[in-house]
Amino acid sequence: MTFSRNAAGHLAALLTILIWGTTFISTKVLLRSFSPVEILFIRFTIGYLSLLAFFPKFLPFRELRHELYYAGAGLSGVTLYFLVENIALTHTLASNVGIMVSAAPLFTALLAWLWLKRKRPGGRFFLGFGAAIAGIALIVFNGNTVLKLNPLGDLLAILAALIWAVYSILTKLIAGFNLNMVLCTRRIFFYGWLFMIPALFLFGFQPETARCFEWLNLFNLLFLGFGATALCFAVWNWTVKVLGPVETSLYIYLVPVVTVLSSALILRERLTPAAIAGTILTLAGLLISEERLRLPGIRTWRSLLKKQTTRPE
């Protein structure tokens, strides 16, 4: 039973990353018609309404402490993370942001150790982190550029990684309430949506509905709102409950891998040797960071296969 639940958690995390790794294509298309904050607001509005339609029950008020956790998760994982990341992109290279944000698993492991009193990250974790970051660097630079430091933008990108780590820890604490994670995710979205409203006025929100109903924009908004937001956040939060914040956050390493592969398949971008090497190095880093030189559950799969291939006497 434990294995099947853990296996489901790993598969759910992988599914989430596969979708999140392709969102850049939809966002790139939508940026022709919308500002980043407009995409963010519409995306999470659709996400909230999708969860409401899927599960039209309401989470009752229990304790002020619970609401503070929901509000903190909404502020960190919904509002601040995306806004800080978008602002970072205006001050530094996208490649820099891709590498800096990938430090989220490191911050998550450190916060889990300090905040949740979990096991201190071991040497293999840091070795895997170094390998994954090196692989991600090969992927995002693709052998064509060199790292150009832009202090403000790079610091904001690191801050975004730290904010996502805070969100991961808060999600684990919320999972401890033993409530329906879809309802918990919707409550998080609600607070994130509220905190997002002041940003709309700061960044110039223009409520023109005609743009939303152009078929290409509508398709990408629905993909981001329903798929990448409602579905993925609910699944991700459940995965944190099952696997824990540290092990789940390791899958963030795979986002650049999925991005470069989807670019090659969808946009017909050339898959260079540097990108291939970076993909292999990133996967190795993920494997090592889990502090076991095997994929989750591989021994169990082998034992199951042996049972199936063994003939009864």
Automatic annotation (TrEMBL):
Its main location: membrane. InterPro entries: AA-Vitamin_Transporters (IPR050638), EamA_dom (IPR000620), EmrE-like (IPR037185). Residues 9-140, 152-288 form the EamA domain. The keyword Transmembrane applies. It is a multi-pass membrane protein. It holds the Pfam family EamA. It comes from Victivallis vadensis. It is found in: Cell membrane. The chain crosses the membrane at residues 12-31, 37-55, 67-84, 96-116, 125-143, 155-176, 188-206, 218-238, 250-267, 273-289. It comes from the Bacteria. This is Drug/metabolite transporter (DMT)-like permease. GO terms for cellular component: plasma membrane. Keywords: Cell membrane, Membrane, Transmembrane, Transmembrane helix.
